[in-house]
Amino acid sequence: MDDNDTGQLPFIEYRKNTTPHMSGVDEVYLVVRGPTLDECRKHFDEILEKTDVKK
After folding, report:
1. Partners of 14 in the beta sheet?
2. Considering the chain, what percentage of its residues have pLDDT values greater than 90?
3. How far is Cα 4 from Cα 11, in angstroms, rounded to an integer?
4. 29 Cβ contact partners less than 8 Å away, ≥ 6 residues apart
5. pLDDT of residue 6
6. Ranked by mean pLDDT, which of 12-16, 26-30, 32-36 comes out on top?
7. Residue 47 — very low, low, confident or very high, per pLDDT cuts 50/70/90?
8. Residue 16: CB partners within 8 Å, gap ≥ 6?
9. What number of other Cβ atoms are within 10 A of residue 8's Cβ?
10. SS3 sequence, the chain?
11. Where are the domains positioned within the chain?
12. Which tops the pLDDT comparison, 26 or 54?
C-alpha cells in the first residue's frame, strides 16, 4: 500500500462560473467535490438555493 494513501475515495471537482453577467464584477466560481458528478450537481444546486447567487 502507498504511504500517501489517505483512504479517501477519488472525487470529482465540479466547477461552474456563478457570476452574474455585469460589467465590473469579478468572476466567482463555486467548486463542489463529490464521488460522482450527480452528487456534485445536487450539492451545487442546494448551495445555490441557500445563497443569493444567480444561476
Report:
1. 32
2. 0
3. 16
4. 15, 16, 17, 18
5. 57
6. 32-36
7. confident
8. 29, 30, 44
9. 7
10. CCCCCCCCCCCEEEEEECCCCCCCCCCCEEEEEECCHHHHHHHHHHHHHCCCCCC
11. 12-49
12. 26
Q: Determine how many CB atoms are found less than 10 A away from the CB of residue 49.
A: 8
Query: Which residue bears the cell 463529490?
Result: 34
Q: Which residue has the cell 443569493?
A: 52
Length in residues, the chain: 55
User: Which residue has better confidence, 34 or 6?
Assistant: 34
Q: What angle do CA 18, 50, 23 make, to 5 degrees?
A: 30
Here the cell at position 1 is 500500500
Q: Which three cell numbers stand for residue 3?
A: 504511504
